[in-house]
Amino acid sequence: MGTATSPSFDTETLRRGIEGQTPETLLSLYADDAELRVVNRNAQPSHPKVLHGRNEIADMLLDVYSRDMTHKLEGCVIQGDRAAYSESCEYADGVRVLSESMITLRDGKISRQILIEAWDE
């Protein structure tokens, strides 16, 4: 009798989506019922911005990756059904953004994500 394994998270798709600025590629990594919580200067920890489902997440990804900026995946660590990754971004005017994400995986897809952003001010 064989052992069942769950699909693994595709870090190469993550890299291609982030660095190629293709929101459709990134969206393919999310479960249909995914939840994304964003914490930044406008959505503080006591009142994070919470997005439910692929449609709401798609709107955010389309907005972010349509901006005149570069994105780089700095690192990704996976352990079991959890993963974390760092992304650095830079706008054309030199403003930098750093984001850290902690994700929960289900069947190789992102089911929950907490994203924390810090911006140059």
TrEMBL record:
Entries under Pfam families matching the protein: SnoaL_2
Location of the SnoaL-like domain: 17-112
Name of the molecule in the record: Nuclear transport factor 2 family protein
Organism: Streptomyces shaanxiensis
